[in-house]
Amino acid sequence: MASDMNGIRHAREVEGHLTWLDSFTSAALGVLAVASGIYTYLGVRGLLDEGGALSLFAAVAYSAAVSTGIFVFWSYLMRLLPAMRTAATRMWLVLSMVLGSAAIVAMSSWLNAAALAGSAAVEQHLARTVQDYQASLERVHEIALQGQALGLDVGRTRQGFQDLSQQEAGGELSGLAGRGAVFRVLTQKSNELAALEELIAAQEAPVAAAFAEGNAILSRMRALTVAPGPVTERGVEFSEESVRLAGVITQLRQLSVAPLVERAAQDLAESVVLPRLDAGDAGGQAAQQATITSLLEVLAQRAETLQAAAAEVLALPPAAEVVYTPISTADAVIRYAGNFAPSWAGAIAIDLLPAVLVLIVAVAQSAIRAGRDPAEAEDSMTVAELRAAVAALRQVDLSEKRDATAPAEAEKDPHPTPRVVE
Questions:
Q1: Where would you find the membrane-spanning parts of this chain (predicted)?
Q2: Is the pTM of this model over 0.70?
Q3: pLDDT tens, residue by residue, 283-302
Q4: Cα separation of 387 and 389, whole Å?
Q5: How is 218-266 classified by DSSP, letter by letter?
């Protein structure tokens, strides 16, 4: 009996707290719903391209619908879920709460996150794009420098043919001193390689200038990612700079001399203009022919070496294609959600915080039922309820007495005088 009375007192205490809390719970839900609606409005405005009255009305209507939906949804659950007594009904209402929470996140929370961190997310997108462009620029410049390094191979091959031509002029190759047929073949290939070497050297300045221009553009793009002002306006200027940088990267690709060296290596052995053998006798001409044949073999070997070096440069992994794509604040928040976890947590919490209140009320109502269920109804009555019950019993007794005396009085006085009861 004592434990039942303690449970009843505990239930009454919890009921008193719930009554006091219920006086401002609706107002609190309304404030949360309105706050979520405001951030939803900001998120919707960021998605709408047009700035006319119709877009303004659409954003207001959507945010008002979200606020109303949040308020009604949590009001239903706060009243109904704690009142459920069976496990099945509770399970169905909990399932409804989960589905409704998912719907709220889908229609509101991501827009709230866009309003809270949309500009920062777009700036993150710009910074990532700058990093991608920088990696692409450095890679294409590296490939271009690898192509310029082929100039050393071409220079060594040219120098080798020049040395052979000097030896032939002294008669050390064919045995015939002077500038005969063998000398002219060596000079011909030496001049071809010298022209190729000059062409490679001429590309050094354009490559350096293009790389410097690309770095200057990257510097301006980095400044735009952190510059003050609306991110949409900075995004337009950023897009223009990205187009310029893409042109510079394409120019650097075209400045690579590796394809040119590869073609020149193929022509080095295949396109040989053989001069007329100019020795005075048959023995001299035979010596010239044998020397030229040996030179052609050397040409083929040197050409194969140059071609292999150029093929290595051409086989290098190319720079990645980078294209800047403008992105909205909502899309940026979703794409870089991992970098803005606090903003997402705040955006979701403002919508789903009433779920905690629903669970609190459900636990409180369960405690009230646990305190009242073991006791009898008369044991759980308060003093005020007892007084009301006593007054009701007196009224019932008085009514019964009046009903009992009414027939006797009617027989004594068949025409009673009406009484006015004040």
A1: 20-42, 54-77, 89-111, 344-364
A2: no
A3: 565 666 666 666 667 777 77
A4: 5
A5: HHHHHHHHH-SS-HHHHHHHHHHHHHHHHHHHHHHHHT--HHHHHHHHH
